[in-house]
């Protein structure tokens, strides 16, 4: 029934029945009438207006995610894209946002029209290379600054051998901790670089073993995902079921 509500209200906007960006009661009554005709369900104009507020709340979340650093936007599929790491981190803090990530947003254009928001195509088409660069923390290079500090202590003529030995011993755990932290940062950077690079052969292999689609169609999908590299990365991060949903949507749109 939500689809009917959005379809009717979007049509009301197109024919000019939303003066001053506010729907008339007649528009809500039209929605109620169509719902009754299609589903034989009584629905008052108050119910329609209440559900419209729910739609506006959902749109607020969508717009927030689109503008958030670390997320991409596929305008063809109407989908907010997140890498596995970004997805996991965000959903842990905002479980209710899961349904908006890496899934097609049904009737996106109608929602945007009904809530009177213009999300121009391409405004949110950020590649994952751009996204990760914004979100990536600076990586400190591994160097010998700590060793130099220790050498300075040992060379200080005003410090006795015993004192220098004690200082060097106490400095070793600190050096090890700092080196461990730096190595951890390097490992994280390598993981991010791996995500930045699309494994074309792995993408091809995963596509070709997907059942229910002919080889020619899978070849078209492969070419598209390689051309739109960040979508190819997102495809590889999806579960088998989500991949099938994406392919079915791609088949129906035939970009």
UniProtKB/TrEMBL annotation:
<feature type="compositionally biased region" description="Polar residues">
    <location>
        <begin position="160"/>
        <end position="172"/>
    </location>
</feature>
<dbReference type="Pfam" id="PF12776">
    <property type="entry name" value="Myb_DNA-bind_3"/>
</dbReference>
<feature type="region of interest" description="Disordered">
    <location>
        <begin position="139"/>
        <end position="183"/>
    </location>
</feature>
<dbReference type="InterPro" id="IPR024752">
    <property type="entry name" value="Myb/SANT-like_dom"/>
</dbReference>
<protein>
    <recommendedName>
        <fullName>Myb/SANT-like domain-containing protein</fullName>
    </recommendedName>
</protein>
<feature type="domain" description="Myb/SANT-like">
    <location>
        <begin position="1"/>
        <end position="88"/>
    </location>
</feature>
